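[recover] target loaded
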């Protein structure tokens, strides 16, 4: 791309993000040009289209009548969809635009399945950044779909099998470290590229599969995961999951919530599988508390965040833990926790909740915690 073309792109983007009076007409004109352009010409502008779609998400509804990105979102989305039908190999820029559409949550089921079908083969791409984005795209789409096609589960099983065949215990330990380069396995016809990010997306896709109902190939997937754990002598899955999947508080809350949701469903096979590898709502919550230093501070910080999903999760979990108190106490003992420490943490959270500093009505949570605390004291 020459400097003049780049400058034109930035000028258009600056008009759109500033909601200037001319931005709508300028983007409309560019859309007409894109629709009559060659595939290569559109490809050179995909980074710009990604920036426009990103602005659409960040802009909010308050600017809907003045934001060119929001007004022309349907046309931009269709342009991206058309590009996926024209290309035999998806570029990184096009993958980013496809992820933008997945985040917007406006794709039909057929469009989502098409995106997945063209992204799945890229899990084995020789460039690691393509692997990462193709897996992220599949995760975002699968998590929104009401059911999962067998082909998706088969690909997850295949990828998990590749991990089992190629990865060593040393590789697993490297993956747990946030600062290392990718692995490239080329000793077989099915070369594999993976790193911490791709393994994280794989784990998250597996959890999404476990959340779905009536997955035909679930038994094969469970067997493959168990074999992977055995072959790498992985005994503490909790620690591994937190090391790989929980780079921040939001990721940790998502993991906690997902495990709880699986246990609250009627899919007994999933619950049995997770319990056999030491993953249950109590073990991940108590381990999370341990990683927080066995204090109430981080929990209170999460509860204070208006946009945090921890509030809804914590309310649901306290109800679940109260109903399964014996299991909670056993898990706590198995993890070497002192029950007095747990009682102190809950008591301190209650003291803060009963103060005046919370931005919402904390009474329902206070009642649940009080019942939990009372049952915790009982033998």
């Amino acid at each position: 791309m020459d400097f003049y073309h780049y400058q034109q792109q930035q000028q258009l983007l600056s008009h759109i993000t500033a909601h200037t009076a001319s931005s709508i007409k300028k983007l409309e004109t560019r859309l007409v040009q894109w629709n009559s352009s060659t595939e290569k010409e559109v490809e050179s502008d995909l980074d710009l289209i990604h920036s426009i779609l990103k602005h659409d998400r960040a802009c909010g509804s308050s600017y809907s009548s003045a934001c060119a990105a929001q007004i022309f979102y349907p046309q931009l989305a269709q342009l991206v969809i058309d590009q996926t039908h024209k290309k035999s190999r998806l570029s990184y820029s096009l993958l980013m635009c496809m992820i933008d559409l997945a985040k917007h949550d406006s794709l039909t089921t057929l469009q989502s399945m098409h995106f997945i079908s063209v992204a799945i083969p890229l899990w084995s791409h020789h460039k690691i950044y393509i692997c990462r984005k193709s897996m992220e795209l599949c995760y975002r789409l699968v998590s929104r779909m009401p059911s999962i096609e067998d082909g998706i589960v088969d690909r997850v099983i295949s990828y998990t099998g590749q991990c089992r065949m190629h990865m060593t215990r040393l590789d697993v330990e490297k993956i747990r470290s946030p600062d290392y380069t990718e692995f490239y396995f080329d000793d077989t016809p099915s070369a594999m590229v993976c790193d911490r990010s791709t393994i994280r997306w794989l784990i998250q896709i597996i959890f999404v599969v476990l959340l779905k109902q009536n997955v035909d190939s679930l038994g094969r997937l469970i067997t493959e995961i168990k074999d992977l754990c055995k072959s790498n002598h992985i005994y503490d899955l909790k620690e591994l999951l937190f090391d790989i999947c929980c780079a921040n508080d939001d990721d940790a809350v998502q993991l906690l919530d997902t495990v709880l949701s699986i246990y609250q469903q009627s899919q007994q096979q999933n619950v049995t599988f997770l319990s056999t590898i030491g993953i249950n709502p109590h073990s991940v919550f108590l381990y999370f508390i341990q990683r927080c230093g066995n204090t109430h501070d981080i929990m209170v910080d999460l509860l204070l965040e208006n946009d945090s999903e921890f509030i809804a999760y914590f309310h649901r979990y306290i109800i679940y833990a109260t109903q399964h108190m014996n299991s909670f106490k056993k898990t706590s003992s198995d993890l070497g926790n002192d029950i007095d420490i747990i009682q102190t943490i809950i008591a301190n959270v209650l003291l803060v909740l009963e103060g005046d500093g919370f931005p919402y009505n904390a009474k329902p949570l206070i009642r649940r915690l009080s019942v939990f605390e009372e049952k915790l004291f009982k033998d």
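[recover] notes: Residues 128-144 form the longest helix (17 residues).
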